[in-house]
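tokens incoming
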């Protein structure tokens, strides 16, 4: 697999390298040692979530307060999704910056988000299923919801029609409003990985 730093420091894109034969394909989605080598962070899975969405469903922007924090490893296991990661760390040099990843089962591309990042995606097909590996269990009252249509963020959803959103997501504050209300984790609470680690890490193949 190829693990590459995103343009928002601390988040990573993971691109598997499939092995194909007459049976089909095999690829590694995540390996703890490889993720540690690339990110400088241990990732222990404590909860696994799935969401299933109709086409044009927009979920997010979602994050978690720190503490407790919650790192996530996110993949699309059915359908297709336009996935966006946003730096929501108050005081971060890249506060409000984002990076875009197109996800599908065919590519197997995943994203890794440590504490201090928001996540949102747009389902591009019906029955789009996203898998979330989470480093902590869900704690009521710790979720952060932000407006994915925040005009200041201007995320590139390229919508042809109004998206399907939950009532909570549609009523969520903008990033600036959340920062002013003190709802966001800070850059000091969520430092980036050690600068001595490489930006790209390649793992050997398995079968």
């Amino acid at each position: 697999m190829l693990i590459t730093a995103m343009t928002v420091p601390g988040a990573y894109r993971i691109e598997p390298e499939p092995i194909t034969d007459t049976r089909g394909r095999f690829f590694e989605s995540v390996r703890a040692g490889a993720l540690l080598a690339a990110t400088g962070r241990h990732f222990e899975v404590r909860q696994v979530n799935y969401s299933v969405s109709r086409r044009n469903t927009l979920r997010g922007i979602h994050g978690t307060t720190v503490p407790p924090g919650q790192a996530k490893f996110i993949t699309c296991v059915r359908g297709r999704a336009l996935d966006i990661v946003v730096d929501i760390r108050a005081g971060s040099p890249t506060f409000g910056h984002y990076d875009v990843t197109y996800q599908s089962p065919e590519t197997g591309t995943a994203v890794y988000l440590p504490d201090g990042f928001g996540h949102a995606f747009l389902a591009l097909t019906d029955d789009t299923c996203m898998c979330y590996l989470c480093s902590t269990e869900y704690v009521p009252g710790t979720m952060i919801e932000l407006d994915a249509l925040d005009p200041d963020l201007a995320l590139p959803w390229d919508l042809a029609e109004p998206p399907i959103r939950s009532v909570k997501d549609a009523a969520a504050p903008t990033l600036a409003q959340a920062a002013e209300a003190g709802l966001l984790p800070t850059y000091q609470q969520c430092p980036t990985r050690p600068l001595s680690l490489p930006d790209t890490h390649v793992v050997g193949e398995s079968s």
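note: The chain has a mean pLDDT of 91.
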